[in-house]
Write a structure and sequence with these properties.
heterodimer, A: alpha/beta, 5-stranded mixed sheet, 4-stranded mixed sheet, 18 helices, 12% strand, B: mainly alpha, MetI-like fold, two-stranded antiparallel sheet, two-stranded antiparallel ribbon, 14 helices, 4 strands, 65% helix
Chain lengths: 422, 351
Amino acid sequence: MHKRRTLTVMAGAVSVALVAAGCGGGGSSSSSSGGGASGRGPITFVSGKDNANVLAPQAARWNAAHPTEKVTIKEQSDKADQQHDDLVQHMQAKDPSYDVFSVDVVWTAEFAAKGWLTPLKGAMALPTNGFLAPTIKAATYNNTLYAAPSSSDGAMLYYRTDLVKTPPKTIDEMWSMCSIAKKAGIDCFAGQFAKYEGLTCNATEWMNAYGAKMVDAQGKPTADSPEAAKGLQALADHYKSGDIPKQAITYQEEESRAAFESGKLLFLRNWPYVYNLASTDASSKVKGKFAVAPLPGVSGPGTSTLGGHMVAISAYSKNKATALDFLKFVTSPDEQKTNMEKGSLAPVLESIYTDPALVAKYPYLPVLKTSIENAVSRPVTPFYPGITTAIQENAFAAIQGQKTAQQAVKDMQAAMAAAAGG
Amino acid sequence: MSAVADRTSQPVENKPAKKSKGLNAGQGRRGLLLVTPTIIFLAVIIIYPLLKAIQLSFQKDAGLDPATGLFVEGGSAGVSNYTHWLLQRCGNVSCPPGTIGAQFYDALRVTLFFTVVSVVIEVLLGIWFAMIMNRDFKGRGLVRAAILVPWAIPTAVTAKLFYFMFAYDGIINHLIGIFGISPQLWTSDPWAAKFAIIIADVWKTTPFMALLILAGLQLIPGDVYEAAQIDGASKWQTFTKITLPLVKTPLMVAVLFRTLDVLRIYDLPAILTGGAGGTTSLSMLVIKQKNEGFHGASALSTIVFLLIAFAAFLFIQFGGADVIKRPPKSEKAAPTAPVNPVAANATTPGA
């Protein structure tokens, strides 16, 4: 039954695409290398290492329904930096064999500005109803949609149900609960504060929580604000006071997960992937003793940083019509559901989060939906590498107490401006 | 290419050495012939990328066209990519803290710090290990193998090993805890992180140093020591007056290699600390810059290349680290030949 539904969805997608291709005639594509919007044939899907083993079965399902337009999976390394470099090299070489590829949310603007992504408009338009709004926003650059969100991610607050009955709704409430941790002889709160991309996510969350905005609507840096300083100051103060343990400055996702799973943390900010592992890992000491809540804010739920991936069509692909069908296939409800169940990938479609059967099986889904709905994406800018360096360097110095929060946000804004200015 | 083929087809014996400068002249010509393929090979794989990197370093990175939101080519940059690093200019302002440009002098300082401290420690330990291995004792082969093991492990693996050992809950903090020292943030704290890298580097590369020094020690004939013993030299005198002078050339070669290695250190700090605690080395900066703008990275890698080439030049000119023994008469034939192949490796990250 499952299979048949997939087939009908795909058949629908194909017929829609056929009509679209018939009307559009491949006119509006901005591609400079031929291969218009009506091209059909086998395609290659390039994606990071498939640790959860969801890609091959997905490709098999597509291939069964599209014998003449088969997809080949090309796996990259499991390191984001290397994936980025691999894509850059192939796009610089205008390689037509990379038809469709997976793009981290923060790369979208850069790739789009370099002219490597096919804009999803005109004959190549992708209907966006049903998607969670922040995911579409993150895939949009210059008011044009450039990719289909394929998986999302939002941070949540993991807490110990055996020690805390109701999760904190506000940041102050959370800090006040640190006395519970002290009594239990464990640390209170940790996120990911090592100097890497995770710190950018964490630091912007704290600054956003107090009402700061990293960039304005035009993409101009606006980090130097009293609100941003307040957010960083809160982190620095509680790091100094020990509410955030000293070693949290070395934590990436896995280290912080290990600390929580070994029962040494009361509150943990982390991504949804931790939920399954902490409930099933043999070494986890918090099995059945934890739950998730939305990140606390100043008053009410806080703002998570949006994570996740998109699927984009290369500007150099020869078979763009097939590629667009594949995008629709990947974002179809059935595929999204399978990816979540088999690979713990957060869906991008609203309907999945409210499916009662799924919520019963995955109780964290409503919290995750709240998280993603309130999520703020990191600055959508082609100069993202420089922006994230500016945030990381200065936030790290502020948390360690090497400079004041005021100075840090001032430097942050100046560094962001310098990075965007070339 | 055809010229090369022509010359090789003629038997060398048929060409009488008319100018009759003796054996050396003929050898020089044949030597040139033999070395030509290598020179062509080096030109293709080293000199071309090097020149290309230098050329690229004078171009501007692509900028954003505000109208379309798309990147457009930047054109010529003059020397702005160099002033960016050396004079800390980011556009029209001086580079704000948190930009990659602002990290240049910190990276230069910390790279030189790593170089000096770890090479000094490695020299001392290397001599010590080499002297131990040079003695005759039972199980000497085993000791030599054991000392060499760290060097056989890839740097990335070493770095990851030390990353786990230096973790906050790792074994090193447990060990120092026995002595009542509070746990250190080995991968983030400004001082601890620098020493974590030096410790890992010393652990990994001292065997290399020891091996080169050992090779030198074994060339010293035993009768020299016998004579010293007869003359009543103390152990210290023997060491400073005989061992050190005689082992100087291989020692300087080892120091040269290690110095050039540390000047371009990348994988160890990248994996161990990720640059936290002010441990971003110059090569790490090149890679970081490459993600932000390619041409700025070319300029930086050229600067790193010049720095390393200069260090190599100093060593060979004044330190006696003569990698290739020159025939006595052709002193001027290849004055800096040993510099390029070694130093040019350093440009690979950016080139």
